[in-house]
Amino acid sequence: MTIRTSNRIAGIPHYEPGLTMAEVMAAYSLDSVVKLASNESPFPPLPEVEAVIANASAHLNRYPDGAARDLRAAIADRHAVDVDQVAVGNGSCELIVHAGEALLEPGTTIIYAEPSFAMYPHLAAAAGADALAVPLAADGGHDLPAMAAAVDERTRLAIICNPNNPTGVYRSADQIEAFLDAVPDDLAVLVDEAYYDFVDEPDRGRVSVLARTRPNLLVTRTFSKAYGLCGLRIGYGVGSQSWVRALDAVRQPFNTNELAQVAALESLRHPAAIQQRVDEAIAERCRVADALTKLAVPFTPSHGNFILMEPPGNGMDADALHEDLLRRGIIVRNGSALGCPGTLRVTIGAPAENDAFLSALGAVVPV
Ligand SMILES: Cc1ncc(COP(=O)(O)O)c(C=O)c1O
Question: Which domains does the chain have, with CATH numbers?
Answer without folding.
Answer: 7-44+272-364 (3.90.1150.10), 47-270 (3.40.640.10)
